[in-house]
Design brief:
Layout lengths: L2 H6 L2 H9 L3 H23 L2 H17 L9 H19 L17 H23 L3 H11 L5 H8 L3 H32 L1
Helix pairs in contact: 2-3, 3-4, 3-5, 4-5, 6-9, 7-9, 8-9
Length: 195
């Protein structure tokens, strides 16, 4: 394939060639999706150099992964890889900020702070388990909307579905999460009073 042919080639064709070590196929994917990955990282980091580093890391990972598994939706894969790389950067810099708890009296001892940190961690783990238990399309749409901060229109374009379908799926997800999070909150509050 000539460069013009590669530019018009489908992602699946390029990925197949990439798994065979085809550098021009990689270059085409890089040129096609670098801005998407960079923008995703920059939204979270607000730092040009770090966002560029994340984008480079994501594409290095794509190049080195070989043919480990089939990627069915490359833009979604790259956005998730970008998000994960950003979280690693934030964790490395200890920039993960605890969610503020409103109307809570100041914690007085290190033991109180440790208990609060444990409860917060358990809450986040429970929330992540709920999200991971969602049906595949709902989980993908939820993560693209709330973790990648993409609009319904952009998600619809990436997933090749209608914006109305995106909104309907988000409504179902939010309803399910709201119901389940209420139960988790009640359990954690009851647990905190036993401490």
């Amino acid at each position: 394939m000539y460069t013009d042919d590669l530019d018009s080639a489908d992602d699946s064709v390029l990925l197949a060639r990439l798994s065979e070590g085809d550098k021009p196929a990689f270059d085409t994917l890089y040129n096609r999706y670098w801005k998407l990955v960079f923008d995703s990282a920059f939204k979270r980091l607000s730092d040009l150099e770090k966002a560029q580093d994340v984008a480079q890391d994501v594409f290095v990972q794509l190049w080195t992964r070989g043919n480990k598994s089939i990627i069915e939706n490359l833009p979604a894969y790259l956005l998730v890889a970008s998000r994960n790389a950003v979280f690693k950067v934030m964790e490395k810099e200890a920039r993960l900020v605890a969610v503020p708890v409103e109307n809570t009296p100041e914690l007085e001892s290190p033991f109180d702070r440790a208990d609060a940190a444990i409860l917060h961690k358990e809450f986040l783990e429970s929330f992540n388990k709920l999200v991971d238990a969602l049906p595949a399309q709902q989980r993908l749409i939820f993560k693209m909307r709330f973790e990648e901060d993409l609009s319904s229109q952009k998600i619809a374009e990436i997933l090749n579905i209608s914006p109305k379908t995106v909104r309907n799926q988000l409504g179902k997800v939010l309803s399910a999460l709201r119901q389940n999070m209420l139960v988790i909150n009640v359990v954690l509050i009851a647990y905190s009073f036993r401490l």
